[in-house]
Specification:
Layout lengths: L1 H16 L7 H4 L4 E6 L3 E8 L8 E3 L2 E5 L3 E6 L5 E6 L4 E4 L2 E7 L5 E8 L6
Antiparallel strand pairs: 1-2, 2-9, 3-8, 4-7, 4-9, 5-6, 5-8
Amino acid sequence: MLQRVLLVVAFLLAVSAAPVLAQDAVKVDPKHYKVEFENDQIRVLRINYGPHEKSVMHEHPPNFAIFMTEGHGKFTFPDGKTQDVPFKAGVTQWDPGGKHLPENLGDKAFEVIVVELKSKPGK
């Protein structure tokens, strides 16, 4: 019995100590991420960042982004590397998904629509 209790306690400690790396952006940062539409194939997010606002580390599945406004952002990745991301309104891009921490480096708010895929492409 004691072994079972110790196993359960060890499991709970491991889960609660796990880093917040693979979490859903809508759950960990509802200030910036809003679900606009969802079905069994896709989820559409509206993303808004005010000037110089920063998110938390989170993860997206493969997705397609539509930049609604011009802006300048930065992604920080789990390994500590960063990437500057300047973008223009109307630009679209494919992203294979992954973990990142976004930040708005600009003096103006920006908006992005992201269409996340719920199944692997080609399946």
